[in-house]
Design a protein that fits this description.
With about 80 residues, the chain is an alpha+beta fold. About 20% of the residues lie in helices and about 30% in strands. The chain has one helix and three strands; from the N terminus they run H-E-E-E. Strands 1-2-3 form a three-stranded antiparallel beta sheet, covered by helices on one side. The longest helix is centred in the first third of the chain and has 14 residues, at about 10-25.
């Protein structure tokens, strides 16, 4: 798993950014065809990229940070 982007914004903003990322994220391989499927609920996409030699599949999901230990005061 890897983090592609972090930002502050509303749930709607996150949905728009996630959809745009599913369309535009480059895996580093030469691409011939891309298919994008949205999971029910809209918080995740399955992206199938067909290249000249290889295929690449990925799932992109939105996640909300609910707690961060770095924000706790140190003792």
């Amino acid at each position: 798993m890897e983090t592609i982007a972090e930002f502050d914004g509303s749930r709607e903003d996150a949905g728009r950014r996630l959809a745009e990322t599913a369309r535009s994220y480059k895996s580093g391989r030469r691409e011939r065809h891309r298919r994008i499927y949205r999971y029910l609920g809209g918080d995740a996409y399955y992206v199938y990229v067909q290249g000249a030699v290889f295929t690449h599949e990925m799932v992109l999901r939105a996640a909300e940070l609910v707690w961060n230990s770095d924000s706790e005061p140190r003792q």
